[in-house]
Amino acid sequence: MNAPDEVLLQHVHEHHGDLLRIVPSLAARVPNLPRPRRADAETERYLMFEAVTGLLATASKQRPVVLILDDLQWAGAPEFLLFKHIVRSGLPMRLLIIGTYRDSEKSRMAAMLADLRGEPGIERIALRGLDEEGVVKFVMAAVGHDLDEAQLALARALSRDTEGSPLFVGEILRNLMESGAAFRVGGQCNIRGDIQTLGIPEGVKEAIERRLRRLDGQPDDRARGGCRHRRAMGQR
């Protein structure tokens, strides 16, 4: 826990040791910290939620706080309840919460999102992949020059197969470089063979697994002879 000592001392004065249930390391920062207050399960959960909210409120008095919650599609009911408790708190807070989740796995999110619809300060932003023009610009920036016909065909294939995900595009470009399918000569990026024979991985997981196998010294069935360059396009 990185909160300043004065924030923690004020928090403990107001909420005792209720935060210990989820942040045991608090005991190492605050001497003589009391144990969490005992009560029935429902009350203990409320006290813990209030302790979390109180810490955010106290910390945000010194400077604004940004709380990032990633991969919310994996969160369970307790996490959702805590999130809603914070959002609906009446405490004055300079707090921005950014929560991310995958649309394809939002079934667990549906109830919470419906419950929070209409709450003040809540905004949903859909993040989509790059369009084909965006992927072409991505590849152009990666190789550092205008694209020739083969490179443009590669960029269009990447756009189609990755649905424009910048992470997927970047990792697959790296995979092509490390496998020898793409290589640099005199500052120019060249592609070995026809675009249809490159065998672009169906997903970033496959691309990353291939790179890890090579790092471990395991054979790669797509490894080819010739010039290899252990650097992604435009990246170290």
Question: How would the blueprint of this fold be written?
Answer:
Elements: H1 5-15, H2 26-29, H3 41-62, E1 65-69, H4 77-87, E2 95-99, H5 107-116, H6 132-143, H7 149-162, H8 166-179, E3 182-185, E4 188-191, H9 204-215
Parallel strand pairs: 1-2
Antiparallel strand pairs: 3-4
Strand order of the largest sheet: 1-2
Percent range for β-strand residues: 5-15%
Shape call: elongated
Q: Measure the end-to-end span.
A: 33 Å
Q: Which residues form runs of ≥5 with pLDDT under 50? A: 220-236
**Global Rg:** 25 Å
Counting structural domains, the number is 2
- Count of DSSP H/I helices: 9
Main sheet overview: 2 strands, parallel
| Strand count | 4
Helix/strand structural class? mainly alpha
Helix percentage:
40-55%
Overall mean pLDDT:
77
Order of helices and strands: HHHEHEHHHHEEH
Task: Please outline what is shown here.
By secondary structure, this protein is mainly alpha-helical. Helices cover 47% and strands 8% of the residues.
Properties at a glance:
two-stranded antiparallel ribbon, mainly alpha, two-stranded parallel ribbon, 4 strands, 9 helices, 47% helix, disordered C terminus, 236 residues, 2 domains
